[in-house]
Design goal:
The protein has 244 residues and is of the alpha/beta class. The protein has helices at 2-53, 87-93, 114-120, 131-148, 172-180, 226-239; strands at residues 60-64, 75-79, 99-104, 124-126, 151-154, 185-192, 210-215, 219-220.
Length: 244
């Protein structure tokens, strides 16, 4: 099985790179000719194309729970994070809620499509070595989702879990988001198995991964401290993991 993974990984990376280059041009045209909404549609198409391309590797997808998400309110999606392959299906499945990311500043340049989307799509780029800048950017995002009734996606583990085990959650991001978006509803999300795509490293990629994304019942922030909230959200996400 692993022998077959080598040629299929090469094919996948060629297709993946081509998607990024093509959609970089499409995003630029969409944003400059049609503005935010045209760009948003281009990103949705790109996300779909990226995660569909992993089917070359035999990856399958199962999504559930979107019907639980309330509409016309600011939302904070809180998810575990297992690999870089979490993001396209997650962003695609939640596209009607206009999700924005908190990303490290290094991703804001040099990556076709990805960097352009982060800079033009409403996400924020934080410098992890500059806490003042990071908090200011997260505050800006919180106010944005509060005003426009859109959403933020938060990965409170900070870094990817390379074995699927849930890591410790950091409180600051959620604390700032809920402080400056007081009407936001928290929506926990559990991602299963995406780490398996990278269990051999970045090459070859693993075959036959069964990616699963589950949206849990929304949680109101009212009457809870930030510590209680993060503990509650972590427990819900943990309950959906299949390898704990």
């Amino acid at each position: 099985m692993k022998i077959l993974a080598y040629p299929l990984s090469i094919i996948f990376y060629l297709v993946f790179g081509l998607i990024l280059v093509i959609f970089h041009v499409i995003q630029w045209l969409a944003y400059n000719l049609g503005g935010y909404h045209a760009h948003h549609k281009a990103v949705k198409a790109m996300d779909w194309s990226i995660f569909q391309s992993t089917r070359i590797l035999g990856t399958s997808y199962h999504f559930s729970g979107r019907e639980k998400i309330p509409k016309a309110v600011p939302l904070i999606f809180v998810s575990n994070h297992q690999s870089m392959f979490d993001i396209p299906p997650l962003e695609w499945y939640l596209s009607s809620f206009h999700p924005k990311f908190i990303s490290k500043i290094e991703l804001g340049k040099g990556i076709p499509s990805v960097s352009y989307n982060l800079k033009k799509g409403g996400s924020v780029l934080i410098d992890r070595s500059d806490s003042k800048q990071a908090l200011s950017e997260i505050k800006k995002l919180a106010k944005y989702i509060e005003i426009h009734h859109r959403s933020a996606i938060l990965f409170p583990e900070g870094t990817r879990s390379r074995n699927g085990k849930l890591k410790r959650f950091h409180e600051n991001g959620l604390k700032v988001l809920t402080k400056y978006s007081p009407n936001a509803i928290i929506v926990p999300i559990t991602i299963n198995n995406s780490w398996e795509l990278l269990k051999y490293g970045s090459f070859p990629l693993s075959l036959g991964t069964k990616f699963k994304l589950e949206i849990h019942e929304p949680i109101s922030t009212k009457g809870m401290t930030s510590e209680e909230l993060i503990e509650n959200v972590r427990a819900v996400i943990l309950s959906g993991l299949n390898n704990q």
